[in-house]
Structure formats: C-alpha cells, structure tokens
Amino acid sequence: MITFTSQNHYKKYLKDINECLTSPCHSQAVCTNIPGNFSCTCNTGTYCVVPSAPPLNVTTHSRGKTLLVVSWQAPDKRLWDGELTGYQVCYSTLESDRNAKCLMTATFLYTISKLHPSTKYFVTVSAGTRAGYGNKSLEVSTITNGEPVNPAGMSYSTVNVTITKPAQYIKEVMVIVQNATSSQTPSEDIQTKDLKPYQANIKGPYVTAYLKADNLPLTIVIGDGKEYNFEKVKYSNQPLKQNSHYIVFLRFFESQ
Length: 256
Known about the structure:
Elements: E1 2-5, E2 11-14, E3 29-34, E4 37-42, E5 56-63, E6 68-73, E7 86-92, E8 101-105, E9 109-112, E10 120-129, E11 132-133, E12 140-143, E13 151-154, E14 159-162, E15 172-179, E16 206-212, E17 219-222, E18 227-230, E19 233-236, E20 246-253
Antiparallel strand pairs: 1-2, 3-4, 5-6, 6-9, 7-8, 7-10, 10-11, 10-12, 13-14, 14-17, 15-16, 15-20, 18-19
GO molecular function, one term: calcium ion binding
InterPro entries: EGF (IPR000742), EGF-like_Ca-bd_dom (IPR001881), EGF-type_Asp/Asn_hydroxyl_site (IPR000152), EGF_Ca-bd_CS (IPR018097), FN3_dom (IPR003961), FN3_sf (IPR036116), Ig-like_fold (IPR013783), NOTCH1_EGF-like (IPR049883)
Keywords: Disulfide bond, EGF-like domain, Receptor, Repeat
C-alpha cells in the first residue's frame, strides 16, 4: 500500500498496480511486481533470452565514398531480458536482405567501411545478451558519396566534367567545388549541412549547382557563370580563378 497526505490533510490509500498482469516481460522470463514498477528475471538464469526490443534512434551521422558512420541508443531497459553484451550492425545494398553482412561492437557508434561509392545501403542494429541478438531495428538507408569527377576539358576559367548517370533511386545531385590545398578537408569529412552556395571571398567548399537527376546533363561546365535555381535557392556557378587548383565532387540524394 502507498500512503500519502493530501493538501486537505486527509489520508488516502492507493493500491499498487500490478504491471505483471499485462505481461510486460519476455515469454520465457518471470515478472516480479514491485511498488511502482516491475522487474523481469529469466527462468533459467540472467542470460536465458535475447532482448525483446531493438536499439533506439538508429541514425547515420556522416558519409564518405566508402564508409558510413552509424549511431544508436540502448533499448528500453525493461526489455533487455538480461545484461546487454553488445550490438550487431548489419548492412546490405538490398532492402530487407536476409543475407546482409553483420559486424559486432560493444559501443553505440560504428563505422562501416570498404563500401562502394554512390551506392545506397540499408542498415539495421540489434542488441544482444549472452543468449544472442534480439530484434533488428527498422532499416535506415543512406547513399555513400561519389568519387571526385575527372575533367573532360578546361579553359582559363572553366572545367568540363562528365557526370555518369546515377542509379534510379537517386533523385538529386549536388555539385561541389573545393580549392585544392595541402590543408583542405577531405571530402568525406565535409558535412552536407555545412555546404552553402558560392559567396564572395568564400574559402571553403561551395555548391556550384544543385540538379534534378531526371534533368542531369551528361557534361556540366564548372565556372560558366550560370545560375542554377533549386527550391528557391540560387546556386551561382562562379568562374574559376586562373592558376588555381580545384577538386570537384558530387553528392547524391533520394531527396533532401
């Protein structure tokens, strides 16, 4: 019984709710009701079953040409069904692939490497006890960055680059220009949210064009001075400076 005193100084008695009546634990675990809460204990020991719930908030944080960084949070502790021993990260280029490649880790952050550029990957994460791994999280999908493009021709202030037709699931293409210096940031470390249209005296990489994949030209002239409008944003394809070195790379999106 739980006793408390109200503001009117009357004592009231509330009966504790038995949460175990709703079967909140795994089918192979025993539920024990405690005041204001409940606990789950395996029939044959602490590690008899796998977690009943997947990890929470599975997201991808940054992207490179050949890597994805994935993070997550632990499942609801009431559904661990034992002590967690680690996590399993699975990925594939196919949706709901039963033969996805899986890797194990004990942290909440994992970098998947040796991937293909400009490719869509599906990722899931599951939590494990000594009995094995439980349910997988909902799939999250991300497209890796493209390779730097090679020039097909150039002039004093422009560079012609050829764009290979992307996969059908790619709907938008971002064209980025970066000054090539010894201290430049690797393209895979550049966050998409930090990329902006060209501005005067800009020192970092900038978006010179944002294009719909349906209207993607086979060749684009970097530095032709044209403006590319995309969803109320103007991207200026600024002429390049003479005697300068540049890197041009692409980023692909299903949608922004």
